[in-house]
Write the structure tokens for this entry.
Amino acid sequence: MAKVPVQFTLNGSEKAEFVDSGTTLLHALRDKIGDTSPKGGCHQGTCGACSVIIDGELRLSCLTLAETCNGATISTTSGLSESGVLHPLQRAFLDTFATQCGFCTPGMIMAAKVLLDHTPNPSRDEVIEALSGNICRCTGYEPIIQAVLTAARSNSQNAA
Amino acid sequence: MALALQTFATVKDANAALKAQGSRYLGGGTLVVRAANEGDVSVSGLVRSTEPSLSTIVVAGGKVRIGASVTMAAIASHPELGALAKAARAVGGPAIRNMATVGGNLFAPAPYGDFAVALLALDAIVGTDDGETPIEIFLAKRDGSRAIVTSVSFTLPKADSFRFLKVSRVKPKGVSVLSIASVLERSPDGIVSSARIALGCMADRPMRARAAEKALTGRSLTKDGIAPALAAASDGTSPITDPIASAWYRNEVLPVHLGRLLLA
């Protein structure tokens, strides 16, 4: 299999790798770069566990080929905390017990981050819509929705 | 297994590469990468084109041209395509909508392909490097299609003439039980002068409800007026059976949902 060079910015750091042509971004992140925060759930685009933010848009890393991300800016959950301080979304997921097994959590958080980046004070329905591509099989959706709303309130209080 | 991807600046060059045995075109990846992840051994290589026209939306003079690589999210947020926003938002969750393309949706097997249902009702023209094809003919022959889709074009529907309904069990995002799109033109007295009705999940690909269209023409959109159309709604259908719904169920509920759409 031909190796192809891929360069992108991951959580603020420049990354340059050679990957097998056709390798998914999920595999490149987890197996080549060592960022295991995106989870490989269904590999069909159904569960949302592998969600990452590419150039400001929520995308599924299991269905995105790494070589199509050349020059892109990619964010994953592992890049959210700064200097050991959790991002408000991460803090809210912990505080509202919105993470049980934790497998869906990184994808949920990335979906929520895109929402809050564009809509800092979302309605409950907007939160539900934003999370609609992400499946959770153990925590239950209500704590997750509450976590996103809590993070939004926290953000607006900090901004005030 | 990883599949070698070839990227070309022009559709013409990509078309030539696509002629190789086992090659598939990569749009947003929601169909073909998914197939590769599932172990579809019929796919041995991927081809894509970065030609800019594939990613542009042009609305001028009441006509719309959407490049094949335009995503559902781009359509849903386009200021002049508000009439189609509901149909675009019916496709997957936010991440899927950021990836799924118009061109890919034409090839999506039931129960997917909700936007193609809308395009069928709009009587769209499908553009390829080889020329243009009416969408109904394109969909009928899509399994053997080897030419890269470059665009879809249609006349922007008049206000309130286009309607779309997706029926699913999970809200707000779920796989379709069925989807319905219609373009209805009415005379000033409210009588339907022409009707195009397209159905999703009522066959292995989007189909026109010809019998219902004929029964609706010349009638008013009242409970009594639409009754003949509802009675004929299932004519010619061959619904899929999947974990979401059986063919029997889809046939049973089609008149109910078509009625709701027409009376909305």
